Amino acid sequence: MTVVYTPEVATVTWLGFIKLLIRWRGSIYKLLWKDFLLFAGIYLLLAIIYHFILPSGLKPGFVSLVEYCDKFQSKIPLSFILGFYVAAVVGRWWEQFNSIPFPSRLAVMVTAHIRGQDDRSRMIRRTIVRYICLGNVMTMASINIPVKKRFPTITHMVDAGFMLPSEQTIIDGLATHYNKFYVPFVWAATLIAQARREGRVSNDFSFQTLIDEVNSFRGKAQKLFNYDWVTIPLVYTQVATLAVYIFFIAALMGRQHIPGSKSGDLIFPMFTILQFFFYMGWLKVAEELLNPFGEDDDDFDINSLIDRNLKTGYLIVDEMHEHLPELLKDQYWDKIAIDIPYTEASLEHYKAAPLGSAEQVIKPETKIHLTPEVPSQLSLITEVDEDKEKQLVSKDEARRASQKSTSSQQRVKSRHSRTEHKLSLPRSTGLRDRILQHRGSIKKMARAMSAEDKAKSPRPSPTTSRKSSTDEEKELEKASRKESLKQAGHRVSKTETQGQEALGTNDTAPIQPPLLLTEEPKLEQPPALSASMVNEILNRLNEIRSRQSNLENK
After folding, report:
1. What is the pLDDT of residues 56-65, one digit of tens each?
2. CA 129 to CA 111: how far, in whole Å?
3. DSSP assignment of 408-454, as one string?
4. Long-range CB contacts (< 8 A, 24+ apart) of 511-515?
5. SS3 for 341?
């Protein structure tokens, strides 16, 4: 019974919606004409009493009442109350429509999973569809007034072919006072299980699929029953109704035309009538949609759905079962480029297939060529490492300046200690460990070369030994100073000390104070370094520096 006007608004036309205003069935005029006549009659009666019947002495009191009603009428939050109420009703109405079950999906599953052309297989398929439609009819007869008028008792369902007399006997014999709409769904599930045992359902997956479809159909029927059981709270409906009626009762007095007064409306209350149509019509819409299973113009036409469901179900599981058209080659069998024809009427609506909005952007010719090779990720990482390295160097310089200002003893180092400090560690931690290993091997080599030169050469006199030792010390000190200028400065870092401690002290000679001219050489001191040993050490240092520079370049 739903009023369908979709074809009239399929295309936007001039005065398209205006044409809908002259329709009567399902219109606001059909809902409001009685209420409007009552409102207009009372309004006209009060106007006649004020202008023609009421004595002059009572008119000031009437005017005061009009001003009072007009002042406090706007205090009623009518739009707020009606807005929330109608939104809740419309949402509930649409959910109820989506909950109406259709057995077409289940019928397709039945004809696909229950095979066989014999009478037993055909009977099982048709009976399952009939049980599903019977459960739907019993549910709708409980909540829908037109369906209840069509099937007032179970006997009428038997007469209509939805139920057999033997099945009516079973339902009547069930000792329960609750609604029995779920019984046909139980019968359908049991019949599917029996077909599985007989081998008419090929596997357990097909059996589970059919059971799930039956439960889904039953769940929608239960949902409709729940909507009929629990409605929108009565207090909400009462508040919305009282707000609308009290508003227009106050409008009967507050909108009266009073000559010379700012209150009231015109002689013909045009805007008051428009308010009545809008607000009262809003309330009537909510009243009509609150229960869409009644006999209003916009209520759901369930009786036609009942007829459609049974006829379509039988057609799917019986007439169409295993009846397929002959497989033939289609007319585009050997074609790749297919041109589907249009009629002359539809040709004007033809449009090219969309390719995406980005395809519409025209790119300039100067910006479509490939750019040079972008910098690699390694170069970006190197730049970041260089910035971190600069920060570390600045921190080392600040720490070194603070150490020089605290104590003068830290600036006076022995010859061997200064020589070790000249071999400043590189910035890379891995390279630093390599240099420390090379330094230990150089010292071992120096001691071995010193012992070999001592065995070959005669023992010098103390004076000659002191002079040669002093000359070699000076040359070594000059060379070490030149090397120190090329490094990052005379810095002594904690990481160097920790590296030396980690390597151990077994491969390094004990540090001895420098020899004085007046001091006799001691036998337990290490022999002095010769010129060849110094050259060998310098060559090793140069080799280490060259390796360090190569690694830094990489």
Report:
1. 888 888 888 8
2. 10
3. STTT---HHHHHHHHSPPPSSHHHHHHHHHHHHHHHHHHHHHHHHHH
4. 511/414, 511/416, 511/417, 512/414, 512/416, 513/414, 514/414, 514/415, 514/473, 515/466, 515/469, 515/470
5. coil
Nearest C-alpha neighbor of 307 from the set 105, 137, 113: 137
**How far apart, in whole angstroms, are the C-alpha atoms of residue 308 and residue 129?**
12
**Backbone angles phi and psi of 161, in degrees to 5:** 95, 5
pLDDT band for position 462 (50/70/90)? very low
Rounded Cα distance, 382 and 394, in Å: 18
Within 8 A by CB and 6+ apart from 247, the residues are 73, 76, 78, 279
Runs of H (alpha helix) within 487-530: 494-503
Per DSSP, the three-state class of 181 is coil
- For residues 279 and 79, give the distance between their C-alpha atoms in angstroms, rounded to a whole number: 8
Say whether 201 sits in a helix, a strand or coil.
strand
Question: For the chain, what percent of residues have pLDDT higher than 70?
Answer: 70
Give the separation between CA 341 and CA 323, rounded to whole angstroms: 30
Cα distances from 310 to residues 194, 224, 345, in angstroms, run 23, 19, 38
Q: Report d(CA 212, CA 192) in Å as an integer.
A: 11
Contact 172, 87 (CB under 8 A): no
Contact at 8 Å (CB) between 509 and 526? yes
- The Cα 298–Cα 234 span in angstroms is 22
> How far, CA to CA in Å, does 69 sit from each of 63, 245, 251, 363?
10, 14, 7, 69
Residue 232, both tokens: 């929108």
Determine contact, residues 54/62, Cβ cutoff 8 Å: yes
Task: DSSP letter for 365, please.
Answer: G
What distances in angstroms separate CA 387 from CA 383, 384, 496, 549, 553, one per listed residue? 6, 5, 22, 18, 16
